[in-house]
Amino acid sequence: MTAAAQPPAATPGQPTATPDLLYTQDEEDLRSAVRALLADRADAPAVIAATESDTPYDPRLWEALAAGIGAAGLLVPEKLGGQGASHREAAVVLEELGRSVAPAPYLTSSVVATETLLALARDDGPAPALLSELASGARTAVLAVPFATPPAGARAALTPLDGTVRGVADAAAADVLLVPTSEGLYAVEATAPGVAVEPLVPLDLTRPLATLTLAGATGTLLADAEASTTAVRRGLLAGAGLLASEQLGIAEWCLTETVRYTRERHQFNRPVGSFQALKHRMAQLWLETVSARAAARKAADALATGSPDAPLAVAVAQAYCSGVAVHAAEECVQLHGGIGMTWEHPAHLYLKRAKADSIAYGSAGSHRAAVAELVELPAP
């Protein structure tokens, strides 16, 4: 898959182009392929069974998604074995992963780690070789920072090669750890001596967390301190921006399934969805979901085009979409009644994913604070 040529990045002070919030035909085709794969291999019973197993994710599903469809290399240039697409296409994949809450290291490896490596902008050395491996799906990597780290906290996330990092998403299944230190960014093999990965029990069982302990570990230096801080910030910014698309997918599934259920569930010889109070609640959810789609698409488009407004678009998307996903999941559980409270029904998976996502790459409050700093208010 090759995306159309992207327009050159705007410079600060210049007006930016009107964002394109619509989906292209290529993006819809990609959505159809990913949705069909997830419907076949990651339906609700399969995801629930995966949360009860000892494996972080299904390797066959990851191989089909990463290599079969080529989703792992969407952000990687073709010369490095990727698809040469953009954040818009990656956002579509994350929407569908949000719809299915499938356990897959796509956000952490194919977005955050990949974007961090791309920020180094080198044509030789270990970074391009690692990018090629990530693009093929043969290996996965994670940025060794707490999952709750916001883009503005890139410098605060620095850790020595002798230290402990808690709450690293998908670290238990990663092949390579990207460790930002005060000396620079290191690529450390997860199986290297001095590396210990201790799985944690997370709220969201579909995205495992782990404590990473480095004791005398050695790695390959990818960039110096200044370049690594910039790269980590770019990786976290892409992660936060495209996480909004995952949250959109969660909200859309919750809304769709709740409407379907309330049409089928009868009480007093009529569908419960026909009751005025429930109509108002679902109409409110629809309005919030539509608004979330606009915010998420704006963030993805800003990242794809290199807009100088990307940090603002990402902050707005996260400040809004995280709350929408949680609200939609809560209403889904509530309006499904007793069945929504059971382990067998997947509603709890969406609520847990939404709650965990609401603090990933920064809480809504931290992103609102970022919006306040980025927006220049006119003088009174």
UniProtKB/TrEMBL annotation:
InterPro entries: AcylCo_DH-like_C, AcylCo_DH/oxidase_C, AcylCoA_DH/ox_N, AcylCoA_DH/ox_N_sf, AcylCoA_DH/oxidase_NM_dom_sf
Domain Acyl-CoA dehydrogenase/oxidase N-terminal: 24-121
Names of required cofactors: FAD
Record bears the keyword Coiled coil: no
Amino acid composition bias (Low complexity), ranges on this chain: 1-19
Keywords, in A-Z order: FAD, Flavoprotein, Oxidoreductase
Coiled coil: none
Any matching Pfam family: Acyl-CoA_dh_N
One annotated GO molecular function: oxidoreductase activity
SUPFAM superfamilies found in the cross-reference section: Acyl-CoA dehydrogenase C-terminal domain-like, Acyl-CoA dehydrogenase NM domain-like
Annotated region (Disordered), positions in chain: 1-23
Family, as annotated: Belongs to the acyl-CoA dehydrogenase family.
PANTHER family linked: ACYL-COA DEHYDROGENASE, ACYL-COA DEHYDROGENASE FADE28
Protein name per the record: Acyl-CoA/acyl-ACP dehydrogenase
Organism the protein comes from: Streptomyces californicus
